[in-house]
Design brief:
Layout (H helix, E strand, L loop, with lengths): L1 E4 L7 H7 L6 E7 L6 E12 L2 E6 L1 H4 L7 E4 L4 E3 L5 E2 L8 E4 L2 H6 L22 E6 L6 E3 L4 E3 L3 E9 L4 E5 L5 E3 L5 E2 L11 E5 L13 E6 L8 E6 H12 L17 E2 L1
Parallel strand pairs: 1-12
Antiparallel strand pairs: 1-14, 2-3, 2-5, 3-4, 4-8, 5-6, 7-8, 7-19, 9-12, 9-16, 10-11, 12-13, 13-18, 14-15, 16-17, 17-18
Length: 269
């Protein structure tokens, strides 16, 4: 996994350490190429679990591909076809889609890592968050190895400074050529984040006065598409996702994570 460093001279090795157990909850998504049927990486998803039920979370625009082609997840052992009905926010709202896993799909993804209540940033704890880490699978780093009948994927984490946490949206600064490797400290160019859409955005509170302290890193949102001309990344706060799970599937969600005031207008896909 690639780790990028942000916040200037502030060391974030502790952030990366805290993130390590959780990034495995982010999986790559593929679709079949129309002409050949071969899989093409095009998005990411986050796996969460509440009330004994498991869910796959990604972007609405990723699910739009589902309307004309089958979406596959790569489980590490093989391709798993994503089946079932997504609940999505409309195009004019947050770019989120949620699917409850059931039947064979739930069984096929049973060995994956699922985030739970302890891994989620509560709605009233965004104050002081100054660092976001995007975790996902750049399409340029994922491809099928036909001879070995497997897929080579690389999960990347990209650290960004927080620009805004207002409303239901997360915004962070992003310049591909101004990233630093989290282990060597060398300047690197991050991959284009295409394919990281639908992945996780993890929040940390990093202090320059205590750069090597113990940092709590929690899932704060789901990353969205970034226009190529933009120098920022955008995500939807996780409370919107949890409101969908609560209101659409009747799954109990702690008030601290999804306050009653948070609702999402839904369109089933």
């Amino acid at each position: 996994m690639k780790n990028e460093k942000a916040l200037g001279s502030v060391a974030i090795s502790e952030v990366n350490t805290a993130l390590e157990p959780m990034w495995r909850s982010v999986i790559p998504l593929f679709t079949g190429r129309e002409a050949t049927g071969r899989p093409v990486a095009f998005g990411s998803a986050v796996l969460v679990e509440f009330g004994g039920q498991r869910f796959l979370v990604t972007n609405r625009h990723v699910v739009d591909e589902y309307l004309t082609s089958t979406i596959f997840a790569w489980s590490g052992a093989g391709f798993v076809a994503i089946t079932g009905d997504f609940f999505c926010t409309p195009e004019t709202d947050s770019d989120v889609a949620v699917l409850r896993l059931a039947g064979d799909l739930n069984d096929q993804l049973a060995d994956q890592v699922f985030l739970s209540e302890a891994d989620i940033l509560p709605a009233d704890e965004y104050d002081g968050v100054n660092h976001l880490t995007l975790v996902g699978y750049p399409a340029s780093r994922s491809k099928e190895i036909r001879q070995a009948r497997t897929v080579r994927t690389q999960c990347y984490s990209i650290g960004v400074r927080v620009l805004s946490l207002a409303g239901n949206t997360l915004r962070g600064s992003f310049l591909r050529t101004r990233q630093r490797d989290g282990q060597s400290g060398l300047k690197v160019t991050a991959p284009e984040p295409d394919g990281m859409s639908g992945g996780g955005m993890f929040a940390s509170k990093v202090s320059a006065a205590n750069p090597d302290g113990n940092h709590s890193t929690k899932l704060a949102g789901i990353s969205m598409e970034r226009p190529k001309e933009e120098i920022e990344v955008i995500g939807t706060k996780i409370a919107i996702v949890l409101a969908i799970i609560r209101d659409s599937y009747g799954t109990p969600i702690p008030e601290a994570l999804a306050p009653a005031r948070v609702t999402a207008v839904l369109n089933p896909e």
